[in-house]
Amino acid sequence: MAPIDPHSYTDSTNPLATHLSLTLFISFPTSTISATALLTLPTPFSGPLLLDTRSLSISSVLHPQTLTPIPFSLSPTIDPIKGQLLTLTLTGQDSILITYSTSPDSSALQWLNPSQTASKTHPFVYTQCHPIHARSVFPCQDTPAARLRFSTLVNLPHPLSSVASAPKTFPDPRPPNPNESRGAVSDDLWCAPGRCVEEFSSEFPVPPYLFALAAGRLGSREVGPRTMVYAEAEGAVLGAAAKEFAGVEEMVRAGEGLFGPYEWGRFDLLVLPPSFPYGGMENPLMVFLTPTVIRGDGSGAQVVAHELAHSWTGNLITNKTNEDFWLNEGFTTYAERRIVEVVQGEERAALNVGIGWKGLNADVERFKDNMEFTKLKNKQEGVDPDDIYSRIPYEKGFQFLWRIERQIGRAKFDEFLKKYIATFKFQSINTEMFIEFLKENVPGIEKDIDLDQWVYGTGIPQDALEPVSNIYMKIVSLSNEFKLGRMPTEDEVAYWSGQEWELYLENLPKTAEASQVTALDARYHLSESKDWEVKVAFLQLSISCGCKNYFGEVEKTLKEVGRRRYLRLLYTALVQGAGKEEERYWLKGYSWRLVNRIIQ
């Protein structure tokens, strides 16, 4: 017996489940879900079946046809990363019905009371299962090596509705029926007045971390032949999102032209409340987005381009463990920039590469005391993947693929990519499988590129390439001139979007005079920008340069936005300046344990 993933109890001798049917009763008053999980194996199995759980209360485990009990046990100790081991003792069963309930402390469920929503009258809940949090929503083999087809029956209070990473089997909520909860709750609760039911089912096998569900008072707008934008029905977000993402279909077609057919049918988007911790989450058929990507000028579609690219690289082909995370994110960053190049032009794509190059160097510096996590393929035994999240798998992975493209030429690399996707679609693979496929299809590549240095070496390889483009070099030059006391003129920034400002601000010295930073803001109002990338970059600079008059805006931002990258940037700037009286004041009301977890 041996685990197949450093973050999962899943054992190499166990069959990987193929289907999971969930029955979920959502209770907002208790912030819990009472549920059943019907797990199907590919063949009958005898022996201990090991499942991952975290903060779940297991009521019973039954054979679904005979309802006879199946022996089970929960480990007496709880691993701080992997959670609690659930062991089922099977005797020839190929399906198992588990009755359980979640905890208010579930790491994958974010419960919002009405005051935290746009409507102020209805609650909201959403999941974030990546990377290892599906186990806190349902017991499973919570490893990307496992791929499941999901069906989900959701019971929730009217007038709320739900969306999921699967198509609805009927368009509108219906009344609940007796005897359909599979014992998740009594029929009295399941069929109580004011409750309704929605059902979802997907034919696509996906890893557990791509399960997604959200429920609230939702509205929707159609923005393309296969795209609906969802958000809270009340408030301005839905209309702004529909306008921001009006060009999504053009990006989908660009992706199909580059990487082959879009396999998933729908490409819908849900803009979540501000507490959502990521820019976007690539849940198939239903991408989750932070409202911070709505910038009012359509440039927020950049994040959508990344999540769209996951439809080929990440969702269609998935890293086998989080140690191979670059296979998801490096490929997707490359694919995203190819889509952007088609839709928005080469200069825009080059600008994205430039911003990424800056981020790569910053994160390599961040891990200077633990260079293991600057490798593409790294060891994560005993490491929480949330604690080592960085731009490195994205940007070093991109640089590796870009290096291969430069070596063999774009036309040949495009052929290679399409063959790679067609060969491994709906599979989970590791780095070694990719390298073997690369060598087989590009003979002699290992003589031209030091593959081991790129994959297993630390830091940034010498043959990585800083982008060269007119706009990139101009912005970097203007940043250097700021050090000499010169601000860009209004003519020079007349056509800048948020990305140009982001690159400019990130290249400014963190030791600039406070008066310089204040003067820059007085001219261009960066602290008031509707583009959160620009606003946060400016506030980070203002903290580093000791501009006390912006601390009120910093505090407001920390309270308004849950996007983890923004929190890490701002808290890091505050912590690094914590020797100063002003920064100590701002941090005294915060938990240092929480702050340190955020900035890691």
From TrEMBL:
Gene3D superfamilies: 3.30.2010.30, Neutral Protease Domain 2, Peptidase M1, leukotriene A4 hydrolase/aminopeptidase C-terminal domain, tricorn interacting facor f3 domain. Aminopeptidase that preferentially cleaves di- and tripeptides. Also has low epoxide hydrolase activity (in vitro). Can hydrolyze the epoxide leukotriene LTA(4) but it forms preferentially 5,6-dihydroxy-7,9,11,14-eicosatetraenoic acid rather than the cytokine leukotriene B(4) as the product compared to the homologous mammalian enzyme (in vitro). Keywords: Cytoplasm, Hydrolase, Metal-binding, Metalloprotease, Protease, Zinc. This is Leucine aminopeptidase. Residues 164-185 are annotated as: Disordered. Residues 470-586 form the Peptidase M1 leukotriene A4 hydrolase/aminopeptidase C-terminal domain. The keyword Hydrolase applies. It is an enzyme of class 3 (hydrolase). It comes from Acorus calamus (Sweet flag). Its cofactor is Zn(2+).
